[in-house]
Write a structure and sequence with these properties.
The chain is α/β, with parallel strands linked by helices. It has helices spanning about 45-50, 70-80, 90-105, 140-150, 170-180, 200-204; strands spanning about 15-25, 25-30, 60-65, 85-90, 110-115, 125-130, 150-165, 185-190, 190-195. This is 16S rRNA methyltransferase.
């Protein structure tokens, strides 16, 4: 089937649903639909990343592959003096994320349809978060890491969630080759949270 959650315009019939959950101590209400990632509920990997991520309250944040918004919108509540940009190639996911920002009264966000970093190519961020689209293939996932390095400010951090069986070792090696080091912040049920900071030493 060619219609994946990383399709630009999903053609599967709409099957909207409403989700309620608690993330980082706050209650959220999300609209979901067919043709988007983890449509039936927030996936475990995203939850592990959400619980682990550490964000300066004034950070500029980018959520790559935002889906209907749980990671990016939670991040926005954690950076009340900052701003979160959320991007996804999936038109339906982007519309849901916009709707979910409104229903949760989250205003410090910008949500764009974008093929990876295409619509933010001139922007730089303090933090980049991603639950990468594994099914899009290793090349796409590694491209996200490469572009993340380019789009981070000096001292900025990349946070990634990835399953061991879906390529965590190769992802870790790729990130280390770009940043000079990678830290495994936590692991939970096969999911790994990887973090790397862009240092001046590595930039030279």
């Amino acid at each position: 089937m060619a219609d994946h959650y990383y399709s630009k315009r999903p053609e599967t019939a709409n099957e909207r649903r409403s989700l309620e959950t608690v993330l980082r101590g706050r209650s959220y209400r999300f609209a979901s639909d067919s043709g988007v990632f983890s449509k039936q509920g927030i996936d475990y990997g995203s939850r592990v990343l959400i619980e682990a991520m550490q964000l300066p309250t004034n950070a500029s944040v980018l959520d790559v592959g935002c889906g209907y918004g749980p990671i990016g919108l939670t991040a926005a509540t954690l950076v009340p003096d900052g701003h979160v940009t959320m991007v996804d190639i999936n038109e339906r996911a982007v519309q849901l994320a916009i709707e979910n920002a409104e229903r949760n009264r989250i205003k410090n966000v910008t949500i764009k349809q974008s093929d990876l970093f295409a619509e933010v190519q001139h922007e730089r961020f303090d933090v980049i978060l991603t639950n990468p689209p594994i099914r899009a293939g290793k090349e796409t996932v590694h491209t996200i890491f490469e572009l993340a390095y380019e789009h981070l400010n000096e001292g900025g951090a990349l946070w990634v969630v990835i399953q061991k069986k879906q390529g965590a070792p190769s992802a870790s090696a790729k990130i280390e080759s770009l940043f000079g080091y990678v830290e495994e912040v936590t692991k939970d049920k096969g999911y790994r949270i990887l973090k790397a900071e862009k240092t001046f030493r590595k930039m030279q």
